[in-house]
Amino acid sequence: MAKDMNAVAFSALRDRYNAVRSQTEALSAAFSAEDLCVQTMPDVSPGKWHLAHVTWFWETFLLSEALPGYQPFDRRFNYLFNSYYEAIGERHARPERGFLTRPGLEEVLAYRTHVDRAVNGWFDQASAEAIETYRTVIETGFAHEEQHQELFLTDIKHVLSRNSFPEAAYARTLDTAPDLIATRPDPVWLTFEGGLAEFGHEGEAFAFDNEGPRHKAWLDPFALASRPVSNAEYLAFIEDEGYGRPEFWLSEGWARMQDEGRTQPFYWRRRDGRWAEFTLHGEQALHPDAPVSHLDYFEASAFASWAGARLPEEREWEQAAQGLAVQTVRWASADGLLHPQPQTSATDLQALFGEVWEWTRSAYSAYPGFAPAAGAIGEYNGKFMCGQFVLRGGSCLTAPDHARTTYRNFFPPDAQWQMTGLRLAKDL
Is this model's pTM higher than 0.85 or not? Predict the structure, then answer.
């Protein structure tokens, strides 16, 4: 019986591997080789690089370790498609990934096929002990590739927005509003008592290393808005000359706004007296009730100050979300909705997951007792715990199984190209 149960479990792992890999290719299928070769800024990686890098991860951390005699597809790829793992060796400079016209897309797809065959072959012949030995690597590989699916979508969006013909990436019509008149009532302030509480991941289910250890921390009483800030609310900030009033801005943010001449969110456009925004479904009329997106930390912080509130601490966000069922999150698929959607009015917390990543004012740092894993895999999260801020929740581009209360995303404060928004908080 135990052997049969192991067989079922291992078959499920293999099925998930193939599903995750197929999802990556489905998201990329709409694009030409030219689309997938472009790098429009250092933070954006070409789509072709994403396709190769996630494959390199499986080859490097699973096949090269677990499959005796495995022959890499091309040993030069270790240099080209290593992202930041110092223990693995030297790598191609990140800002120059757009220079990689070779290997071509066909060769990268052949690389994926080679690795997929090898991984499936390993699942077919590996012992139960071997699969258990590499289970953490396997589950990390799933989560890693799903993270890159999200990055692929935000990166290709940036690429297309810079195109002379910024057409839709995916054929899906959004529910847009004819004009910018908000239909939702104001958010409700929900209060929380604070006190000593526990935070972070524990248990057998997969989580990234930076989500633990479980620990205790003290919270003062606080309030959290029932929903994320909407486009209409953010427009009010713009119309009140929020981008021109230094009293709302952190010093570095104010300097950036002045240097860049920024006056609106990254993908917003003014067309014939109406507001529009560029989406993965093409340019669309701005919906007043949809969560505002593609704000950097400085914009989120400035809006909160203007609104007489603040950004939440990450533990406040987690405390508010604890005990709530994770709302259904739509899978980021080529035939799905790849943009934040208006939410129905409610008096409880809504849109915590699956619309926009929500900035917190918490610096990204280690929890008490955190220690990175041994070896190169330990470089996954811990080495970035400096100069970044934590985001919580997940966006409409995030894989559903990443939607959990303990998930800690992180970006530098000037990052705009991700699907980032905010929810207000205040002291009591």
Answer: yes
